[in-house]
Design brief:
The chain is an alpha/beta fold. Among the domains are: about 180 residues, inorganic pyrophosphatase (n-terminal core), CATH 3.90.1640.10; about 120 residues, Diaminopimelate Epimerase, Chain A, domain 1. The protein is built from 19 helices and 23 strands. α1 runs parallel beside α11, α12 crosses α14 and α18 crosses α19. It is elongated and about 115 Å long.
Length: about 550
Amino acid sequence: MERIYVTGHRNPDTDSIVSAMAYAALRNALGDRQYIAARLGHISDETKLVLDRFGFDPPLHIYNMRTQVRDLAYDTPPALSSALTVRHAWSILQQDPAINAIPVTDENGLLYGMLTAGDIASYDMQSITDPMVESIPLFNLLSVLEGHVLNEDGTDLDAISGEIVFALPKGKDSLLFNGSNYIAICGNQPEVIRWALESKIHCLILCEAEISADLLAMAGSTCVISTPFDAYRAARLIFQAIPIERICRTKDIECFHLTDYLDDVREVVSRSRYRSYPILDENEKVVGTLSRFHLIKPHRKQVVLVDHNELAQSVPGLEQAEILEIIDHHRLADIQTNNPIYFRNEPVGSTTTIVAGMYQERGIMPPVKMAGLMCAAILSDTVLFKSPTATQRDRDIAERLARLAGISLDELGQYIFSASSGEGKSAESMFLTDFKDFHIADHYLGVSQITCVDSARMLDRKDEFLEVMEKIKADKGYSILLLMLTDVLLEGTRVIYLGDRDTMEQAFGVSASDQTFFLPGVMSRKKQIIPMLSALWG
């Protein structure tokens, strides 16, 4: 079943994580069991606290949406053991003409070589001019001939070697045995059989014939085999009894892994002339084969975006994926799709509020623990409904979810924001936990937000934060970096900035000395900070 990933933005906050989890759970409850919640970064202390509170594990961590070999509709022919007979391998190749090569594995199941119909045909043509076979396993020979050994000493042999000759009905003079290294094929010809046994040849194959007891007693070390096939067919089958490890290609094999990216595969294939390439899993076991045909129109990963619709905040490689839906509460940004999609964008304080409404629309009540988790996400993103993005709908849905989960909104809110104290965490880790990029006019800026209940205590670490910001600004080339210390109790935000002071003072109407200033009533990055800068820069 094909996976559909539901993912929020990079450096995910609680709303981004929970809305992805809640929407994937909703779709799976409706019968679409292939939806999988995913995340694009490490979870914050706050999010971990919330997940632990309601007994959930973090979603799957994905790193990009680039098309991989595992996304292709590659062929899955059987991987043949290197000990298998040529006859058996040929029958498999004939079953599906679309498959032009079959992987060959060793006794440990690892890739040994590749076998094509051309390899078998080439060997078959060589056998016409060279009727010698070496060390054919007796088991293989009996299998292809559908025969059995008639003499007891013959069963002691493990392998058969020799030049293949036909005993024609003219008599023993037609046989020129110059030693024992022969495999003679004959029918009901007692004199020829006697001559062959007296010459102590390696193997005697009786085609549609029987042997008398007195002749069989002469066999000695000669392996006497009876087969129901005629002489011509038996001769050809002997050549097909050799193990495929002797004729398959084992050198200069290009192989790919399920995790390899399509761009890299195309580059390798463009330099090669092979028609088929083996595919290996993480344990180096063969899982299929890849041909140029599979690269023409690759199947792309499918994704649902929640809590964002901006390319810079989305998963790397998104341009190679197929976007199925977007559910968000932010401004419209720059993500484009090839086809019309379901796009739901509502002016509420939390994406989880939208998802909770979708549960209601479909007549599905979220489980108790999921209801508690969704309630926590709404409280987090609306900053206990104090953010200017918060709406009455956020409050109504959060209260309904709280009743369903049997929890108190006030108690849960205090529990959530207690995680932002920063005890034991580095300044860099705290700064990057909820960090977003923005492009406004010709300006490239980054804004980090830490929601807490004691911003003064966080401000004591200003020098640490500025050191981190200096490094990030130099590495990434930002015009401005901002750190919002949003204080729930003060209902305002202390800002630490790195960049042009005049810009800060003009945009926010403050005195921005000492690289800090306070914005009373400012709780939202997207609805207050970014619009002020956008208005300044046009």
